[in-house]
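Wed. Picked up where I left off yesterday with Flagellar hook protein FlgE. The coffee machine is broken again, so keeping this brief.
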Amino acid sequence: MAFNIGLSGLRAASSDLNVTGNNISNAGTAGFKQSRAEFSDVYAASVLGTGSNPQGSGVLLSNVSQLFNQGNINYTQNALDLAINGNGFFVTSNNGDVSYTRAGYFGTDREGYVVNNFGYRLQGYAVDANGNLQNGVVSDLRIETSSQAPKATTQIAQTYNLNSTNTVPTTTPFDPADPTTYNSSTSVNIYDSQGNAHVLTQYFVKTGANTWSMNTLIDGRNPNDPTSTTPYAVDLTFNSAGQLDLTALSSTDFTVNADGTLSLTNWVPAVSNGATPPVWSANGATANAGGISLDMRQSTQFASAFAVSSISQDGYTTGQLSGLEIDDTGVVFARYTNGQSKVQGQIVLANFANVQGLTPVGKTSWVQSFQSGEPVIGTPRSGTMGALQAGALEDSNVELSDQLVNLIVAQRNYQANAKTIETESAITQTIINLR
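Structure written out below (tokens, as returned):
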């Protein structure tokens, strides 16, 4: 009996050494979760039970459980290194074979898919052609690495103040090259269908008490006729409170809409040949098919210096991918050289009712099992899911000092059980030597 007891102790101590050694060997493995050997005692049983004072029959390795406590977050500054602070696992797919991991080594392959260091594709919500997230449809995440197509300007919104103390210019007629013929001016870049930038300039000329004329040129030319420098004009009227009177807007060049906005519907994008004097002609691109909406309804006329408090337009030129940003909810933003950003997708996480029931399959990954239950899929920071940290990795949760102490304990256990076998051998030899 003592031989079997000692042998079971040796096996248990050896298993403990193996588990501890595996923990130590993976102390530097990102996303690794340490294991713990769990033992239980063994008693010989018979049909009628074990009796009131049974002798033990040794020890049994009942389970090797993994401890999924949080590892330290180590910042790497690599945009696609990802760490989970809290519950959840990254979902990866290897040709449809789904696995779960906490190791956040990710990058892109030659097709733009986000993959880990084994080539498994990260899963998440993709976007449609309009950049809208397709929530609920989990698929391979892909980064669009091609150039971003240009967008023609469709609207301009601006707010400015005209100085009510200005006087009517004495020099006439209006000449954009002569500042004495107008009171103030401002400009904004707009874009045609090919992403070419053009400068839209507005010149404000006071014509009387509370009345102004806004003269508009694009690249210094007439918007509809590049061979002409005659501006498009709009008559502006302000009320006694200094607010723009939207009902008094008047123009033969712009379309005055019912809501008080203006529409430029016949712009012909032009280009100069660079000669002296330059010759201007259409550049082959087009303006937005629906025209350009100009919203300046919040503009005022007060007794203060001319100032533009806000101005924006929605067009842009073509852009190259310059970087990625991932927020703590897993949304992936691509930044382009034209100053634009675009949502590329959203990373999803999986959680389980019993994470210790997951089956480890190596490569710091686990797969679902009957004991783990079905995965609950969600985005970071939703429900019980943890937050995502980009530019960082989760370190192994192995505490080396604890593991080294475990090594000493397992070694002593092994030696003690070997001593049990040695002692039983000596006793047996004594019995054999009886005469």
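Quick read: The chain has a mean pLDDT of 92.
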